[in-house]
Amino acid sequence: MRSPSAIPKPPQRTEGDACDELVDALIRLAEAQRVLVTSPTDPSQPQRQVLLEVEHSGARLQVVRIPPDPAQRLLSPREREIARMVAKGYPNKTIAGVLDVSTWTVGTHLRRIFLKLGVGSRAAMVAKLIDSGVLEPALE
What we know:
The chain has helices spanning about 20-30, 70-75, 75-85, 90-100, 105-115, 120-130, and strands at about 35-40, 50-55, 60-65. By secondary structure, it is of the alpha+beta class.
């Protein structure tokens, strides 16, 4: 990571450039790395980190960092793959055959998924993953 002194200076701009304020704010952000945390109006939404806030021509612009969904972050790619197969209705033996692993390995992955999601059944796991957007609902 470069230090603020190593940030290159922008080229000279003409006065009245419509992007002046935004460019200046981006430079300030790069130099100061200030971050504001705001509470969303909807309590079910995650808090947003405002990296930059600029008002220009009557419009307020924000650059925000929104954390990824916890369920998406929690599960490994293999666990998501197994969860997708469970959602399709495949039993452990079929999943094991398709993935070329033992049924014990599939069971271990499922136990880890249950623990991470705080659920106790395959149905609850699928419902939670659909609610969180990790899995898409099956269309019949």
